[in-house]
């Protein structure tokens, strides 16, 4: 899974029955990603902590520590699970600044998404006791929801500005690790087809570091990572910034390291229903970038595509079927 989940112990540490926010440290030569990278729920907890009784802090710590067990519960169900009455749940939520339990539940679900691992996601899904067909429908429904969120929330002006930058850039490096590697390669390959000098480095950490090390302000780094972000991708952005290299991110929220460290970014949700993230919206975002690149300079794109088509039709790129195989023999 591309999204590197946070260690709960490094995020919220239990001290004498209360919760304190810890600091997440990075290795390497990049600045540490600090505890400011909190979910809205964690931020509210931190802000309200001094006004919460020890018992309420313990209750909230339990909920935050196992969001996969609590995010789908009503206030009454949550009260039963943690052996308190419903009024205690509601008053605790209000003490954190929420007007309604539904608002707290919304932030708890988002918190769960940031903490989720393939195991916890699969476990939470399996507890619903649905048929395999139900899980298939649910997965596709989530894909559609992510795609609709992209359509509703995409700032097309950001894409237009990115395309202008791509056309005046000398070289483009697209960084994506794990599942995001296929996204990075797709974007880089599409840009090459349109005449851009683009690549998606693969291999060891050193390969990415070396590519970034020789980049200049005339180049562009595009980073694709989600949630807390994989360290290698985030550090590539940080190194690029120190070299005054323009950066652009594809991520899934305004609070992610990619959003914080990149000059500009677009959001594509990867919300999922089981163990694997949904990259449908990310693929759609990449398609939008490539379409915009082609139609911002249509004459150039058509010339390049015509050349490619000519080369493809004169070669052995396409499978011709069994009749051609027999003729060849």
Detailed description of the structure:
The chain has 329 residues and is an alpha/beta fold. It has two domains: 8-115, Winged helix-like DNA-binding domain superfamily/Winged helix DNA-binding domain (Arc Repressor Mutant, subunit A); 150-314, Glucose-6-phosphate isomerase like protein, domain 1 (Rossmann fold, 3-Layer(aba) Sandwich). Helix content is 57%, strand content 9%. The chain has 17 helices and seven strands. The protein has helices spanning 8-11, 40-48, 54-65, 67-70, 75-81, 86-95, 101-115, 118-126, 132-153, 156-168, 179-193, 205-213, 231-242, 257-261, 280-296, 298-314, 322-328, and strands spanning 12-15, 18-21, 172-176, 198-199, 220-224, 247-251, 264-267. A five-stranded parallel beta sheet has the order 4-3-5-6-7, with helices on both faces. A two-stranded antiparallel ribbon has the order 1-2. Helix 13 links the parallel strand 5 (220-224) and strand 6. The longest helix is centred in the middle third of the chain and has 22 residues, at 132-153. The chain is elongated, with a radius of gyration of 24 Å.
